[in-house]
Amino acid sequence: MADGDIKLEETWKFALETEFEDPYMADLKSFLVSEKKAGKLIFPKGSEYFRALDLTPLDEVKVVILGQDPYHGEGQAHGLCFSVRPGVRIPPSLVNIYKEMEADLGIAPAKHGFLEHWAEQGVLLLNSVLTVEEGKAAAHQGKGWERFTDAVIRTVNEECDGVVFILWGAYAQKKAAFVDEERHLVIKSAHPSPLSAHNGFLGSKPFSKANEYLQSIGKDPVDWELPETV
């Protein structure tokens, strides 16, 4: 899985070495290869499967935001949860994230949905499942990715100190239920989806809470304001 066109950032490569050696990852790779050979379009492209890890080295993780699946539309997914490529319409959940950020921090919504600026500051934007088939939401659930991303979260929990875990919705909260809340800050609320945002996401102030905690333990806050041009 880490061979060929896929390169993994060194701190993660070392920390997750046993995962890549486990048979389930070989099975996952075989599944992806067979799907591509069958002519199915897989998002994101292979070099971006681990983009979240590549942009946010293990020793730089300050915040973890969990998503579920990559976007399954053409040109959307690029390896970071909730983020889309420049020029792509901003998805509804991210629209609500921007609304909450404006209410919380006074930051006007960006005109794009490209979140790499966050990732480069230590915000791990991790989906539970790292690939999807075009037009088929959740098509790659249960193929092995969940086990791999569980290992990513477990690694952060055990090897880092003072990380903010922002868990939106029941799925993310269940996935990261083992995080040590004495060692880290866990922020929970409803999901920013239009179906649930008004049930506790809007008004939850996750961005200011995260920064207040980071500053309280001597870490730099996250600059949540996205650059206008990308």
UniProtKB/TrEMBL annotation:
Reaction catalysed by this enzyme: Hydrolyzes single-stranded DNA or mismatched double-stranded DNA and polynucleotides, releasing free uracil
The encoding gene: ung
Top-level EC class: hydrolase
Keywords, sorted A to Z: Cytoplasm, DNA damage, DNA repair, Glycosidase, Hydrolase
Family: Belongs to the uracil-DNA glycosylase (UDG) superfamily. UNG family.
NCBIfam families, alphabetized: PRK05254.1-1 (NF003588), PRK05254.1-2 (NF003589), PRK05254.1-4 (NF003591), PRK05254.1-5 (NF003592), ung (TIGR00628)
E.C. no: 3.2.2.27
Source superkingdom: Bacteria
Domain Uracil-DNA glycosylase-like, chain residue ranges per copy: 54-214
Protein name: Uracil-DNA glycosylase
SUPFAM superfamilies in alphabetical order: Uracil-DNA glycosylase-like
